[in-house]
Amino acid sequence: MAFLGSLTAMWCLWQYWESGRGKWLVGGVISYAAALFFKENAITFLAIFPLVGYFFTRKSLPEILKTTLLFIVPAAVYLSVRHAVIGDVLKLKETVLLDNLLFATTSTTEQLATAILLLGKYLKTLFFPHPLSSDWGYNQIPITDFSDLRVWLSGLVHLGLLVAAIRGLKKRAVWAFAILFYFINFSIFSNIFIKIGSSYGDRFLYSASPGFAIAAAWGLMKLFKVSKNINPYDFRGLWQKNKVFTVVSALIIVLFSLKTISRNPAWYDSFTLYQTDVKVAPNSAKLNYHYGLELAKKGDEATGAEREKWYREARKHLNKALEIFPQYHDAYARLGLVDYYEKRPESALKNYELALRYKPNYSSVYSNMGTLLFEQKRYDEALEAYKKSVELDPRFVDGWRNLGSLYALSKRYSEAIACFQKGLEIEPDNAILNFYLGQAYRDSGQPERGVPFLEKARRLDPSLPK
User: Fold this and answer.
1) Does any domain span residue 389?
2) How many whole angstroms separate alpha carbon 403 and alpha carbon 410?
3) pTM score, whole prediction
4) Helix axes 397-409, 363-375, angle to 10 degrees
5) Residues 20, 64: one domain?
6) Are 10 and 46 in contact (CB under 8 A)?
7) What is the pLDDT of residue 189?
8) Containing structural domain, residue 158
9) pLDDT at 94
10) What is the structure's pLDDT at 93?
11) Among 15, 121, 276, 292, which is disulfide-ready with 318 (CB 3.0 to 4.6 Å)?
């Protein structure tokens, strides 16, 4: 939607320059404002709008700048709102290394070299989009340095394109606009100027790809000597005068379309996506973790030998994630749950402890640990674990439920009631919490106060006992 809004704004701006009618300018500013609020990477179009005026109109540079400066207004409004909501800069979480391998570099030269190598991979993907993956994070693409010839090749190609585009400015060459469109639009994802939350993603090419498409179309037209004045909607005329160009263009469109169609089934659901992509990027810690997570979910729902099969595969990929990134706390946490369901309490406890070593504020792990300790009749330790879970995350509903349940079992009903009430403040329509609160009131000698909660619980979940 951000891309659509940006292109709409660009088209409206061009219409304004052609007609001089103010409604087009207003429409352009509104479209651009919408684009920014859909996604912030639309900010790059602030530099593209003047290029459209320069390359495709005969307006003077002062005229172009005067008009396009108006688009700073929605950008300023967006940035002000963003600052009010999230502050100056988003604080990247400790797990960002899993998404952006550049956070694992040990020097500026390593970071720059790896970023330049990734630019080459992006360019290669534009020409040959295979294979594709939803994630290329740590450590699928290893960190490199300037001793890697691929870095120099990528750097020289990009430098050459940039120099050519600058030289093409004076001639207002279409291919120069295409290159600049690509560079400007992609700059925000390049990790050259600032490190973002991901080192590489095929999806980042989406909004920059029109630059490649324009350059490719221009190149084919030049190669096959197609007149630039041809009517693009006269397919019969195009075919009669430029058969080879038409066939080659159609072949390219068909091949790229087939790649899109063949990739679509991978996005059927999370399980299918990770199952497909872990084969393409087997050294991605994140893909192995998420596939392991999906396998474990299958195991949670199965029984007997089927459950064992799913859990065995889940362990394989969760352990692979830990092999790649030994500090992966989420992988330890999920392994702990698998151990718990497979009745391996000591192994589960060990994995929970490892998860907490690398993420001390992991509230759900404290809660899961509390459940395990409770089943081992280590009630005092379980109580402390449950307390810690809600201390770390006061909005953790399961933590309040577990803590309240332990208080209720210890006949500390007033504390149990307080915990269930805390949970219901967050999720008032939680059937289990309503049920437990009603029972706590009943067991504490206040049955009349519990009746409304028990009735509500059964309305929400008729399967609850009467």
Assistant:
1) no
2) 11
3) 0.89
4) 30
5) yes
6) no
7) 94
8) 96-223
9) 45
10) 45
11) 292
- The CA distance from 425 to 438, in Å, is 15
Taking the C-alpha atoms of residue 418 and residue 150, their distance in angstroms, rounded to an integer, is 62
Cα–Cα distance measured from residue 47 to residue 60, given in angstroms and rounded to the nearest whole number: 17
Helix spans in 128-269 (H): 149-168, 174-186, 209-223, 235-241, 243-263
Whether residues 148 and 117 share a domain: the answer is yes
Calculate the CA 80 to chain-centre distance. 24
Q: What is the pLDDT of residue 16?
A: 96
Q: Are residues 103 and 218 in the same domain?
A: yes
20: left (phi over 0), alpha (psi -120 to 50) or beta: left
Beta strands in 273-431 (DSSP E): none
Q: What share of the chain is helix, strand, coil (3-state, %, to 5)?
A: 75, 0, 25
CB 404 within 8 A of CB 419: yes
Q: What three-state secondary structure class fits 402?
A: helix
Q: How far apart are CA 263 and CA 279, in angstroms?
A: 14
Residue where a domain stops, chosen among 159, 194, 223: 223
- What's residue 87's pLDDT? 64
Q: Is residue 290 part of a domain?
A: yes
Radius of gyration, CA atoms only, the chain: 29
Instruction: Give the chain's residues under pLDDT 70.
Output: 87-95
Is 287:274 a contact under the CB 8 Å cutoff? yes
pLDDT for 310 equals 98
Contact of 32 with 77, CB cutoff 8 Å: no
Residue 446 falls inside a structural domain:
no
* Tokens 């792990």, residue located: 365
Same domain? 78 vs 196:
no
For the stretch 212-217, contacts whose Cβ atoms lie closer than 8 Å and that sit 24 or more positions apart, written own/partner, are 212/126, 212/178, 212/182, 214/174, 214/175, 214/177, 214/178, 214/181, 215/175, 215/178, 215/179, 215/182, 216/252, 217/249
Place of tokens 């352009």: 28
pLDDT at residue 95, as a whole number: 44
Instruction: Give domain status of residue 348, yes or no.
Output: yes
Closest CA to 216 of 241, 172, 248, 257: 248
Alpha carbon distance 2, 99 (integer Å): 23
* Own/partner pairs, 265-272, CB within 8 angstroms, 24+ separation: 266/134, 270/294, 271/295, 271/297, 271/298
Distance between CA atoms of residues 25 and 15, nearest Å: 8
In the three-class reduction of DSSP (H, G, I as helix; E, B as strand; rest coil), residue 243 is classed as: helix
**Cβ-based neighbours of 81, under 8 Å, separated by 6 or more:** 37
Looking at residue 240, what is its pLDDT?
78
Co-location of 82 and 103 in the same domain: no
One-letter amino acid identity for 277? D
**φ and ψ of 130, to 5 deg:** -155, 135
Look at the chain and report how many structural domains it folds into: 3
Count other C-beta atoms under 10 Å from residue 275's C-beta.
16
